[in-house]
Amino acid sequence: MASSSVMRRVSLRNLRAHKLRLFLTVFSIVLGTSFVAGSIVFTSTVSKAFNDIFDSVAPGVSVQITPENNQSPGVPQTVVDDLEARKSELGIDRIVANYSGLVTIANSEGKALQTGGAPSVGTAYLPPDVALSPDTSKLEPGGRGPTGPGEVALNASAAEKAGLKVGSKSKVVLGQGSAQPREVTVVGLLDLPGSTGGFVNVQFDQTTAKTLFSDGQHVAQVDMSAAAGVTPAQLQERVEKALPPDLYKVRTGDQVRQDEKDNVNQFLSIFTGILLAFAAIGLIVGTFIIYNTFSMIVAQRNRELALLRAVGASRKQVSRSVLFEAFIVGVIGGVVGLGIGIGLAALLKALTSSASGLPQAPLQISAGAVLAALFVGVVVTMVSAWVPALRASKVPPVEAMRSGMAEGSAPLRTRTIAGAVLGVAGLAAIIIGAMGVGLGPAIAVGCGSAAAIAAVVLAGPALSRPIVGGLGTVIGAPFGKIGRLARTNAVRNPRRTAATAFALTLGLMLVAVIGTLGTSFKGTIDTAVDTGLRAEFIVAGANQLPIPGSVATAVEGVDGVGSSVSFGVVRAEVNDKTVAGYGALGGQPDDVAIMDMKDGASPNLPADGMLVSERTRNTQGWDRGDVVTFTGPTGERIPVTVSGVYADNEALQPWMVGPTVYDKLVPPSARVSATIFVTPAPGVQADVLRTNLENATDSYLTVQVQDRDEFKSSVSSQIDQMLATLYAMLGLALLIAVLGIVNTLALSVVERTREIGMLRAVGMLRSQVRRSIYLESVLIAIFGAILGVILGSVIGWALVRTLAKWGLGTPVLPWSLIVITLVASAVVGVLAALWPAVRAARTRPLEAIAEA
User: Fold this and answer.
1) Counting Cβ atoms within 10 Å, is residue 575 exposed (0-12), middle (13-18) or buried (19+)?
2) Over 50: is that where the pLDDT of 405 sits?
3) pLDDT band at 178 (very low <50, low <70, confident <90, very high)
4) Is residue 372 classed exposed, middle or buried when 0-12, 13-18 and 19+ CB atoms within 10 A define those classes?
5) Which residues make beta-bridge pairs with 578?
6) What residues contact 579, with CB distance under 8 A and at least 6 apart?
7) Half-sphere exposure of 76 (CA within 13 A, CB side)
8) Residue 29: alpha-carbon gap to chain centroid
9) Dihedral angle at the C-alpha atoms of 805, 811, 817, 818, nearest 10 degrees?
10) How far apart are the C-alpha atoms of 136 and 223, rounded to whole Å?
11) Confidence of residue 622 (pLDDT cuts 50, 70, 90)
């Protein structure tokens, strides 16, 4: 017991005596814990914000009625009238018919108010004497509720963002229906509970809302409050019995709120999963850094540990002392990592508040985040320290006290063979997966990728010698003896070199995978436009949002239009499954797109028929002559004959119905278009037609006219925006990798103090010392980058092949990204070496030699 106490005191004194080493060790742990803690805090904060919002959903509602079929035009007005007449019998206090639809409002500059992805809806304003809860009618001082078709009330948070106030003139475009853009005046600002983020709520008077958002015979939903003495559950039961079975959802207010939370939690679970996946990447990278750090620290202390063994300490006591030190620095690193993680979460929160529609809430620092940071800090650190500690305890005291004893001298044969076997198996799985399409082959590629990554971990040290050696010969040649010294240092300890480089390998592998997917997506869009369209112009909504059906009518009447086809969005059910396609309206698809018919059928689309792509034929089994029975929103069954099958064209996926079928499947209030393809009439100049189209659609806030190149560019920019988010997350992992190189080099300088002192003593200049450290870092960084880029490109290429089922075209490697990555890796190598190189150059020869 006394000896254990002595060893603990020795460990604590050792930590205090080597402050730089302690700092670098704690720093490596902080890198591995902060990302995990930050991810948990951020997702907890977003979850709390959504829960707060949905706690205020349906205020005052005891029971709500909505259609069972989401495609239904709504609850019939006759049902509302019947319930109104039976209020006393059923126990209803108040009943309210709600109308709602998508809208866009202009800001003070006349441009569409951007929501960052949050909903922008129009509803009916309910005066206090009608509303179920006073919260829904809470107006800020100086305003009033709308009373006519040209007046609206707007939620205060949206008004502030739009630069609007009471009395401001604006314009509202309906996202549904055929109404023209409306000039409106803001007469009131609403203080709505839970109205955060980019949410927009434009409220019209009840009569106007009914006209705009319904067909006059249906309402979106029916809310009611219970009379005194009637519970929500009792009212729910009575209303269910009063309605036809299986046509409507009858839920209590608590059930409505919980269902909304459940829907958002599905999104949050995916969102959390993505964040935690990146956290896992950061953790893996951090684990390698921590392991690397402890391997070097134990190697530097071999003589010290051997001396303890020589004076009577047992192997267990030596290994326990190392683990005790690991525990201490793990706790410190976990606590500091938690603090930095909270800072990262705050930064992400600030970014999302300005760039997205995510709601906001105070940072949620849960017990889970604290425990995760401490668990990662302590457990990962102790596991990482266990192998070096075990290795140190097995070294005989006399051998360890020799100055030539160094870490990492064990043979590499076994792990290299294991790595080679895994590498062959992984490559085989990737190739086999790339030969197929669909989920199964994608899983095969995923399994092969995991095996290939494991192979790089195992065989990395063996690979480092020839690759780093070759790079060192080429890159170091202009630097003469300094270059050869850097090469020697980089290949001296292949385990350390491989472990340091792997952090960069993993990050750049993911960059290459995502880059390949993004480039291939953009290549698919370019090919679809270049080879699949005849149209000169594409009229579409901003950010690929749908546009009102009235836009198609406006485009058709433009002077100089030869052909124009609007693709209206169709959603219906086939065999109890929801399917989505388009209605080709205003002309024949073959007028604006290239249609290669595969079975001899005419490219003409009958008004009461449909055309399907080859992909749809293969997945749905719909072939020429088959009858597909659609179930519309009212429950009406509509049989449609397949008139033909056309070759896959990404601009026309997945199927199209004629205008007669479209009118039956889509109620007027839900008619929106995805795109309108336009060709000029003979003899009309493209620039003239464009000007005419822009003038005709100028009043629509969300509509933009683009030529083919602009359309491709806009889609590509959206892909780039999505990729930018992923790259930003990966950037943190890469930052960890770079800091890991800094950490390793700094410890390496400490380890080689005597060696550097000897070199300085025999005439090496400080600038030469710095240069050798720079070159060593560059070699390690480029080695990691080469492995990452090769691995990521192969995996990305295979994944794209498996996604052909979902419309992805030929794999396109991001060559510019690959070149930039390799060049950037060399720059990263120099930057990572700046501080270690300066520290090495400041080594005083006599003091360094005396330390031996």
Assistant:
1) exposed
2) no
3) very low
4) buried
5) 573
6) 571, 572, 573, 620, 630
7) 8
8) 26
9) 130
10) 13
11) very high
The residues near 44 (Cβ < 8 Å, ≥ 6 apart) are 364, 365, 366, 368, 369
Q: Mean pLDDT across the stretch 549-556?
A: 84
Given a contact cutoff of 8 angstroms between Cβ atoms, the answer to whether 156 and 193 are in contact is: no
Number of CB atoms found within 10 A of residue 127's CB: 13
CA–chain centroid gap for 201, Å, is 27
Calculate the average pLDDT of the chain: 81
Cβ-based neighbour number of residue 415 at 10 Å: 17
φ, ψ dihedrals at 488, nearest 5°: -60, -45
**Could you tell me which residues come within 8 angstroms of residue 560 by beta carbon, excluding any fewer than 6 positions away?**
680, 681, 684, 688, 689, 692
Residues 509/788, Cβ–Cβ less than 8 Å = yes
* Sign of the C-alpha dihedral computed for residues 637, 642, 647 and 649 taken in this order: negative
| Other Cβ atoms within 10 Å of 758 Cβ, number | 16
Enter the tokens of residue 226. 């219970």
CA dist., res. 125 & res. 154, Å (int): 10
Strand partners, 676: 539, 566
Which residues have C-beta within 8 Å of that of residue 590, sequence separation ≥ 6?
Answer: 603, 604
Structure tokens at 218: 């249906």
Reported as type and span, the H/E element at residue 150 is: none
Token pair listed for 55: 């706690």
Structure token pair of residue 24: 């670098």
Distance of CA 567 to the CA centre of its chain: 29
| Residue in the block written with tokens 């060696």 | 755
Closest CA to 482 of 821, 766, 208: 766
Q: Long-range contacts for 686-689 (Cβ within 8 Å, ≥24 apart)?
A: 686/536, 686/537, 688/560, 689/536, 689/537, 689/558, 689/560, 689/561
**235-292 tens-digit pLDDT:** 999 999 999 888 889 999 888 888 877 776 666 676 667 666 766 766 676 677 777 7
CA–CA separation, 221 and 457 (whole Å) = 58
pLDDT beyond 90 at 153? yes
CA pair distance 221, 347, nearest whole angstrom: 39
Which pLDDT score is estimated for 239? 92
Q: Which pair of structure tokens corresponds to residue 612?
A: 């399907």
Closest CA to 132 of 174, 168, 97, 84: 97
Please name the residue that has the structure tokens 């205008």: 659
- Percent of the chain past pLDDT 70, that is, above it, reads 83
Measure the CA–CA gap between 728 and 723, rounded to whole angstroms. 8
Q: If pLDDT is split at 50, 70 and 90, which confidence band does 643 have?
A: very high
pTM attached to this predicted model: 0.70
Sign of CA dihedral 216, 118, 197, 103: negative
Q: What is the largest CA-CA distance in the chain?
A: 104
Q: Between the ranges 25-29, 118-122, 387-391, 804-808, where is the mean pLDDT highest?
A: 118-122
**Residue 753 token pair:** 């103090």
